[in-house]
Amino acid sequence: MAFDNKKKLGIIGGGQLGRMLIQSAIDFDFIIHALDPDPEASCVHLAHHFVTGSLTDYQTVYDFGKDMDLITIEIEHINTAALKDLEKLGIKVFPQPGIVEIIQDKRLQKSFFEQNGIPTAEFVLVDDRESVKNHLEFLPAVNKVGKGGYDGKGVQILRGEADASKAFDAPGLLEKLIDFDKELAVIVARSESGEVRTFPVVEMAFHPEANLVEYLFAPADIDASTTEKAAQIAIKTAEAFGIVGLLAVEMFLTQSGDILVNEVAPRPHNSGHQSQRANFTSQFEQHLRAIFDLPLGETGQIAPAAMVNLLGADGYTGEAIYEGMEEIMKVEGVHPFLYGKSKTKPFRKMGHVTIIDSDFEKLKEKVNFVKKTLRIIS
Questions:
Q1: Which string of DSSP letters, residue by residue, matches 192-227?
Q2: Distance CA 356, CA 362 (A)
Q3: CATH number of the domain enclosing 189
Q4: Is 13 left (phi over 0), alpha (psi -120 to 50) or beta?
Q5: Is the N-terminal amide bond of 219 cis, ω within 30° of 0?
Q6: CA triple 135-139-145, angle to 5 deg
Q7: Is the pTM here over 0.85, yes or no?
Q8: Which 8-state DSSP code applies to residue 27?
C-alpha cells in the first residue's frame, strides 16, 4: 500500500492505547475515528471523530466501521462478527478478526499454541467448577477463564484440593504452575507485505495485588542465546497467526532455561511503552506502519530503559491528584505519560513513566525512586 494519509482509520476502543496510537498517528497526519463506550474515554479529545457506543454490539461496530478505509483495535473484547462482515465489504481490518477471535478465548489460544508447535505450559481444558474436581492430580495450577479475563482478572492459582471449590464456574483451563526465573515479553510487528521486526526482549515484574505489570526493564537481563530464542519464538508465533500489526508475546523463562509462551495480545501492549523514549521507533508508530503496509521502523534501543506503570493508590477513589510529580521530573531521563483519566480508583492504570539511563544500576535506582515518590491519590 502506497503512503496515503487521506485514508480514514477507525480504532475500536478509545482507552490509553488508542490515545497513544493517535498521538503517534498525528505525526503522519492520519485521519482518526475512535469508538468507545465511555463518553470521557482517553481518546475523546484527540480523535478527529469520536463515537460513543458498545464495542461488543454488532450493529454499533458495523455502523462505525462501514465508512472506514482501515480498522484496527486497542482491546480484544469486541464484536468480531461485525468486523468479519466489514472485511466482506472490502474494508481492511488489522489485526484480522479471525485472529482476534482465537486470542479472545484463552482455551482456543492455548490450543492454537499446541497445534502449531509453539512451546507453552502443559494445560487441560475445563468446562466449569465441577469439572476442575476431575483434575485434582493436575494441581497446583493456574485457573483461567476462557473469555472475559483482562489485566489479571479471571486468573487465579489453585494450589491443591482445598482450593478446587474456588475455581471459576465457567469454561476455562488449568495451566501447570511454572517455576519460572523471569517473565519476558517480545513485541513483533508484521506488515501486510510480510515484513517482520521484533523489539528487544523485556523483563517484567508484576504487581502482587493487581496482577498486572508494575514495571519492566529493557533489554532483559538474559544472555544472547536466550534473547535469540525468545525473539525466534515470538516470530514463529506471529507467523503462525499470519497477523498484520503488532503481536505482544508474553513468555516464561523457566529455571531450566526453557522459554514457554504464556499469552499473546494482538495490539500495542504494556510491555512496549518504554519504546516511546528508548527506541528509534515506538510500538505505536510501528503498529501504524504495519497496518498501513509501510516500511517497518528500526526497533533498536537508544539506551537501556525501564517503564513504571502509574496505578491508582489503594484506598483512594475520586479526582486524581499526582503527588510527587515535580520530584520525579527533576530526574534526568524520566518522562511521565498520563492517560487523560480525571478520576482515580485503586490500581486503575492512570499513566506510566519511561526511564532511560546508560548505567543499569542507576536505571534501577531511578525505578525505585519513581515507585516510592509518585503516588496517585484523591
A1: TT--EEEPPPEEEEE-TTT-SEEEEEES-S--HHHH
A2: 9
A3: 3.30.470.20
A4: left
A5: yes
A6: 75
A7: yes
A8: G
